[in-house]
Automatic annotation (TrEMBL):
D-alanyl-D-alanine carboxypeptidase-like core domain segment(s): 85-226
Any Pfam family hit: VanY
The protein, known as: M15 family metallopeptidase
Record keyword Disulfide bond present: no
Length: 252
């Protein structure tokens, strides 16, 4: 009787140990799987299936930011669309996006397009002058100005491929352009459908992405990169900086 009991206790103990061990193993396996996924999604230079024929040197992928400023004005044919100037090659795409929004029930305002380096110099100088007038030293004024105005040469608007566009209702509430404009369905429509027209939301809000672009979230600033690039960047959640880096890593 007691032998049988001991045997039973032993059997139960074995079952518990085996079950416990497999549970532990399962948990660990899951853990390493999820860390594995994390590692693969953060190594953005190892992207596959990059769009065919695309090169990092293509005109619609030109990268302008504070680390890649322009030293002189860019030369390209300009066109006027909805009261703003853009690179003539993207005029139709801008019109199509505005028409698409209208068909979905949203009126939009094209707030700005191309800006010359010279114009940016004037804007910068004016803001800096105001800061100096408020008693700042030259160094302080320069710093305070650079915090709110792109330094001449480093604004993407110099390329003629960037547009500031907003739902008319969002723009009416936030005429100085604020991230909060994305609370409007019109702005959400633009953000969600931009890629259909070859545009990407250029300055997204994820912290890691702000580090890449060097610019805080802007729910109104879109950049033309072409439909294939825009769809790829959207699908892989890539900034232009990360995408160009990936193309270069692939020898493109
Ligand atoms: Zn802008």
């Amino acid at each position: 009787m007691s032998k049988k009991r001991n045997w039973l206790i032993g059997l139960v103990a074995i079952v518990i140990i085996v079950f416990g061990a497999s549970l532990f193993y399962f948990k660990e396996a899951n853990k390493s799987q999820s860390t594995g996924q994390k590692t693969s999604s953060s190594s953005k230079t190892k992207l596959t299936n990059l769009p065919k024929g695309v090169k990092s040197t293509d005109w619609d992928l030109v990268l302008v930011n504070k680390w890649h400023p322009l030293s002189s004005e860019m030369n390209f044919e300009k066109a006027t669309v909805s009261g703003a100037t853009v690179d003539a090659r993207i005029k139709q795409a801008v019109l199509d996006m505005q028409n698409g929004a209208r068909a979905a029930g949203y009126l939009t305002n094209l707030i700005s397009g191309y800006r010359s380096i010279q114009y940016q110099q004037e804007v910068f100088a004016n803001v800096k002058k105001n800061n100096l007038a408020q008693g700042m030293t030259d160094e302080q004024a320069q710093k305070a100005t650079a915090a709110v105005v792109q330094e001449p040469g480093s604004s993407e608007h110099h390329t003629g491929l960037a547009i500031d566009i907003a739902g008319s209702d969002a723009f009416e509430k936030y005429p100085n352009l604020e991230a909060n404009m994305d609370q409007f369905a019109s702005q959400q429509w633009l953000i969600n459908h931009a890629a259909d027209y070859g545009f990407v939301l250029r300055y997204p809000k994820e912290k890691s992405q702000i580090k890449q672009t060097g610019i805080d979230y802007e729910s109104w600033h879109f950049r033309y990169v072409g439909v294939a690039n825009a769809n790829y960047m959207k699908a892989h959640n890539l900034t232009l900086e990360a995408y160009v880096k990936a193309l270069k890593a692939a020898g493109r």
